[in-house]
Amino acid sequence: MRRRWLIIFLTLLLLWVLVAQVNHYLALWRVYLFVGGLYVTYAALQLPLRSGLAASLLGGLLCDANSPVPPGTHVILFAAAHAVLFHVRDRVPRDQTITRVIIALLANLALFLVFSFLLIGLSPTPAAIWPRLIFDLVCSQVFLALIAPWFFALQGRAQELAGLRERSIY
Amino acid sequence: MPPRFDQARPFVTLGVVVLVWILLPVVIKGFLRVSFFELQAPVSVPASYLRDLQDYWSLRVHSKTELIAAGRDLARVNASYELASQQHAEFLAEIRRLEDLLRLPAHSQYRFEHARVVRRDFSGWWQQLVIRKGRNYGIPVGAPVVFSGGVVGRVIAVHAYTAVVELISSPTLRLAAVVEGDTRPMSFQGGLNTTFGPAHGVIEFVPLDIFASANSTRRLVTSGLGGVFPPGLTLGQVVKIEPSTDGLFKTGEVLLDQRLGELIEVTVLVPLNEG
User: Fold this and answer.
1) Does residue A154 sit within a domain?
2) pTM above 0.80, yes or no
3) Distance from CA of A120 to the nearest CA of B (A)
4) What are residue A118's phi and psi, to 5 degrees?
5) Is residue A115 part of a domain?
6) How far does B157 lie from chain A, in Å, by closest CA?
7) What digits encode the pLDDT tens for the residues B88-130?
8) Complex ipTM, two decimals?
9) Mutation test of the interface with chain B: which of A32, A87, A91, A111, choosing the one with the most B Cβ atoms within 10 A?
């Protein structure tokens, strides 16, 4: 039971590495993918509160370490997203992949917008930056919809391989 | 557990997390940031070595005729640089003589540290590079980073084997600049990064008698003020200048080098007095 957050964190580390590599190549065209929603969705929908939140917080620390943002920006945003998703998880069919993907898309949209409003003040011309942000958001959502089923399956499978059941008891 | 508290449990936990984070000492936050950065470094750095290997094997498919032609072209360029290098040594000696004669403070001396790019991170919010040299090569925080096209940015974080470079296209980077041939400083800030296009920057406090347009651009260079960047390094081309709202100065737009998004190697200027 104690290893559950660690297993999920390792999958988040893999996700971060893969997305960082994709962003490295997309930098040529000045396109950036943000998949913050994927860092919290599975942990919030499937794991008990404490271990799920621990995984989300570790994912936030990982993102914080690689971004020039005030310390804790990702941590607090991911914790808030986790709390909201955990609150609603019993009202949605959270075992279905399509539901998880839709929730991840909504969480990603919310996180992206909050992030943009927090950081847009740094730009010398905030209004001029929105077309770029909207394009990045659309690309991110498409990318997330494509990889989310694989990533959720990976997270479930990783738990099985570690000898942990996928579904948790609340 | 009462059902009402059960509903509020995630938010109570969130409140506790936020409170703990606020009360956490800065030292621990800094330690966590460094630790998590170093945690992923062993994954990112080998990925960059793999890219280098990929490039190496793709270069191996070139024919010998192509390599001979490239070597010949390179020899010609080297000959030109050899001459320029001799002149450079003469100029440096002349500057030293004048500094001694006039008792001027000496110009900063730099050591050139070439580094491969591990990762590019170009979002709409920030632009940064991770390079494959860090404390192991004595890279200091704040060191200027350049490439053949001019300024890349400055080092904002140094880790054991890597360093993070904030690009001049990043909205968080500000520096003093001058238009080539003029000595009056103005403020440069990055931040206009459109998709599929080159990055742009913004200049403020431009004197009223400076003009530029898309058809007659002006080269913007570092001023040397502030002591971070040596003077005369290219920042970009001023493509637009218009009067600012206060009427005392002008503001303008600077087109940055397209190659900033494709860099695979950069040079860090390490001040010699910092060891």
Assistant:
1) yes
2) yes
3) 7
4) -70, -35
5) yes
6) 10
7) 999 989 988 988 898 877 777 888 999 999 999 999 899 999 9
8) 0.86
9) A32
